[in-house]
């Protein structure tokens, strides 16, 4: 009897090891950071073989902020488990230079045929030469991000559009040496582009922006943060983007009420950042209220030309959708009690800073920090109403 029980227990243990444990491991491993997965490979040959047998675990190559990332990249892409990688993140990695991207091209070309997402943000040692090398191996790339790269020029963008025909998400933020030529290339080659970030691309002019607005009608996210050189003639053309949902115009010093009124034709707009658009007045905000009735986020931070007059139209048309309204620094808008604000905008989740009547509520424990105007960042936070002290 005892022998039979021992035999049954042993059989159950074998069944657990061969059937149940791999299933559990497959579920758990998908929730682990890649660095932990790499460590698990070293635990035992069985665990190594089991994890490697799950192709979905190796579609991402995560090298963010790692040292010696160039050698790590080449070594990883030489391994069989990364033969079908779809996403590579090298954001702010150390030691990423053109020579490593050229090595990838010569040694690991086949491993990048399915790559869809490449993040080179903060990799400042990469030049047009590196962009040519890596993009030539990624014919199916859809998302390319090269934030804060001052070595990239129009030549690099020429290689990008030649080698990667399916890009729909392009982040060129901080690439200060790109000119209107780059925007012409993007407009001519990416008619299906959906997201474009041109933050602080200071050499751009109305001509380049207008080519984008005519050539990329599918855009639903456009970031023009900290670009003060554009004029109303270009801003008016934003009305061509019928699918636009997110628009950042922070620091658009030449934007007037006339330009804002044209932007108000973008009926799908959900997020609009007009921070420091100093020429805008109540007229422009009222036009937005009347045209963009699905608006969820609106920043008027630092605009002294807006007053209480624009709040009533916003309340009438956007009260059921508006979750964030930043009027910090708008000296023409008076303080209000918490109840008054909720009556006007019942969907707001309130975090107030120097905004309400100090006698009406307790300010202790509320987060008073101002948050970023990037809507995708806002999506990760509780929505707020930020009013300025009048």
TrEMBL record:
- Which Gene Ontology CC terms are recorded? SCF ubiquitin ligase complex
Q: Which GO terms describe its biological process?
A: SCF-dependent proteasomal ubiquitin-dependent protein catabolic process
F-box/LRR-repeat protein 15-like leucin rich repeat domain residues: 151-357
Q: Which SMART domains match?
A: LRR_CC
Q: Which residues cross the membrane?
A: none
Show the PANTHER family listed in the entry: F-BOX PROTEIN YLR352W, PARTNER OF PAIRED, ISOFORM B-RELATED
* Name under which the protein is recorded: F-box/LRR-repeat protein 15-like leucin rich repeat domain-containing protein
Source organism (scientific name): Malus domestica (Apple)
């Amino acid at each position: 009897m005892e022998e039979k029980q021992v035999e049954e227990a042993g059989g159950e243990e074998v069944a657990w090891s061969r059937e149940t444990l791999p299933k559990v491991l497959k579920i758990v491993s998908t929730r682990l950071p890649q660095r932990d997965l790499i460590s698990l490979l070293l635990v035992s040959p069985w665990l190594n073989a089991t994890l490697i047998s799950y192709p979905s675990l190796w579609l991402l190559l995560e090298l963010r902020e790692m040292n010696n990332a160039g050698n790590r990249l080449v070594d990883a892409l030489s391994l069989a488990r990364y033969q079908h990688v779809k996403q590579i993140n090298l954001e702010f990695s150390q030691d990423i230079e053109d020579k490593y991207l050229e090595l990838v091209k010569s040694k690991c070309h086949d491993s990048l045929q399915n790559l869809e997402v490449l993040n080179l943000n903060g990799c400042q040692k990469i030049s047009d030469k590196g962009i040519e090398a890596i993009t030539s191996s990624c014919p199916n790339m859809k998302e390319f991000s090269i934030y804060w790269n001052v070595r990239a020029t129009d030549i690099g963008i020429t290689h990008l559009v030649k080698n990667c025909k399916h890009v729909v998400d392009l982040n060129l933020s901080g690439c200060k040496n790109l000119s209107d030529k780059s925007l012409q290339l993007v407009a001519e080659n990416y008619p299906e582009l959906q997201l474009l970030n041109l933050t602080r691309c200071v050499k751009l002019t109305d001509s380049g922006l207008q080519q984008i607005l005519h050539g990329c009608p599918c855009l639903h996210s456009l970031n023009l943060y900290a670009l003060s050189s554009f004029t109303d003639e270009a801003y008016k053309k934003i009305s061509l983007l019928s699918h636009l949902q997110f628009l950042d115009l922070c620091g658009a010093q030449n934007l007037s009420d006339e330009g804002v009124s044209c932007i108000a034709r973008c009926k799908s707009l959900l997020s609009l950042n007009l921070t420091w658009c100093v020429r805008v007045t109540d007229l422009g905000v009222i036009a937005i209220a009347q045209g963009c009735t699905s608006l969820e986020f609106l920043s008027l931070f630092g605009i002294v030309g807006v007053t209480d007059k624009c709040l009533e139209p916003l309340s009438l048309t956007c009260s059921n959708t508006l979750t964030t309204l930043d009027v910090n620094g708008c000296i023409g808008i008076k303080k209000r009690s918490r109840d008054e604000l909720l009556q006007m905008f019942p969907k707001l989740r309130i975090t107030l800073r120097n905004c309400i009547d100090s006698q009406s509520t307790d300010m202790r424990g509320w987060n008073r920090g101002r948050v970023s105007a990037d809507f995708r960042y806002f999506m990760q936070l509780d929505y707020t109403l930020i009013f300025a002290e009048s």
